[in-house]
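Just scan my protein:

——
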Amino acid sequence: MQVTHSTARHDARAWQTALDRALSAHGDADALARYPHLANAFPAPTPSTRQHPLLDYRELKAWATRRGWQVRPAPERATGEDRHNPPVRFTRRPTGTARHSH
């Protein structure tokens, strides 16, 4: 089965929607997300030979900022193979500091 660009874009949107729902339901100020999940939601345009795409960190950061979160890699939480692609920490920004695009 061949994956088209529009199918990949649709899949990324589905991953983004799932992430948005999970973060909205999360009650704490901090949350962790695994790299492969985020890479599926925000795939870099560069092809990858790995199981999952590379993460477009710039796009993830812009998306998270619009929703009131700050993102940073969390290498201290990585184990085993994850140390090459560590989880990402989402930290809720204080209310009123989220940037909205106009």
In short: The first strand starts at residue 30 and ends at 33. Confidence is low (pLDDT under 50) at residues 1-6.
